[in-house]
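Q: Convert this sequence to structure tokens.
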Amino acid sequence: MDIQDDQPEQARGVHVTYTNDPVEAEAWLRNNVMDIDTRALGFDIEWKPQFVKKKLGGKENKTAVLQLSTETATLVLHIIHVKTLPRHLVDILADQSILKVGCGIRPDVIKLLRDTGLQCKGAIDLVELASRSGYTKQHGQGLKTLAMNVLGIEMTKPKRVQLSNWEFLPLTRSQICYAALDAWVGIKLHSHMQKQMNNGKNAKSEIDGLIDVQPSDIVIVCCNVCGKKCKGEGKLQEHMGNAGHSQCPKCGMMFVFAVTRKHRNKCTGSEGHSSQSANLKTVF
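A:
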């Protein structure tokens, strides 16, 4: 199918493949990425909305749909209904040399890893890329505003579709086009911004903005000094650097604030205590 007539004129003729068949997904990935050496893909995910707050017992639903797009074709994979993950999908997502671009992409990459085990390398946030390309915050911080201000593409994002049930099989035509357009606009923005950088308007490389998400980023790490919960080892290190914790110079024991007078008077400088130690708890 093609993107609907009620979508932006610039997207007319973009072919959309919607499937939950791993064989059909493999064919799309082979024909549109591997065989023609595609080096960048628009990336996005969708999931069923959570209407009950977490503090009231609500639970975030798993990733339901994964979208990948070139400038001429888009894959809308109903991943929650895929029985076996396509081998090409695993390889392409894990290949850092094939860039995946999207707005606010880091949380999506972490969620995909947590929900499916798929690790996405080579991810680039379009908001960061816009800054590197010479655009300012006035051009927008979201996909819709960037599309309008940078490309002149007006996106319609109806709430009835955005907040619809993305787990229902099959998706409606409106859902498919909504999902496809998000990924397609992402790759169009990337192509435009890449040209801006190549023209010498900004010396920074897009490779400098790669987002690295590791399996450790989906665990909660607790600071052993104050008990603060941090998302991943990186956030723990950031917390340790900014929290103002103090360390006894004799034994290495950590304190939330200053080393206490009682400890200084009694410290013998024996067993050291690691300031980097932490308790890990997997987040499901």
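Residues 173-198 form the longest helix (26 residues).
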